[in-house]
Design a protein that fits this description.
By secondary structure, the chain is of the alpha+beta class. The protein is 40% helix and 25% strand. Strands 3-5-4 form a three-stranded antiparallel β-sheet. It has a two-stranded antiparallel sheet with strand order 1-2. α3 crosses α4. The protein is globular, with a radius of gyration of 15 Å. The relative contact order is 0.21.
Length: 122
């Protein structure tokens, strides 16, 4: 990834920008021994604040809408990575508390998914 300082970035949809949240390389804290995160040039971490969705849609927001949006977004990552000659893999095996600390999640956030993105091995 060129032009970005190594660190944890948060996407801000209102302004369509990445905000540097934490400086430094924290991949080893996120990897969980699988090696994919450490090898990848970047990794997306999906999280949700379920209260935002349930406030509007009730329990249906937690049980359905957040997961539908996650699926759509993740599929777009698969498609874009493939179009760029890259690959990704959805990872659900992680330690919640470690991931929360590593990426600086708020107490209201719940980790959902990790997607390391990189070049496939030959």
């Amino acid at each position: 990834v060129k032009g970005l300082e190594t660190g944890i970035y948060q996407y801000r949809p209102e302004s369509h920008e990445l905000w540097l949240k934490i400086r430094g390389d924290r991949r080893s804290m996120v990897d969980n021994g699988q090696g994919m995160v450490i090898a990848a040039p970047f990794t997306l971490v999906y999280s949700a604040v379920f209260e935002r969705t349930t406030r509007r849609y009730g329990q249906r927001g937690r049980e359905r809408y957040v997961w539908i949006d996650l699926g759509h977004s993740a599929e777009n990552v698969y498609l874009q990575a493939t179009a760029m000659g890259m690959g990704t893999c959805a990872v659900g095996a992680f330690h919640d508390a470690t991931l929360h600390r590593a990426v600086g999640m708020s107490p209201a956030e719940q980790a959902l998914y990790i997607m390391p993105v990189g070049y496939p091995a030959e």
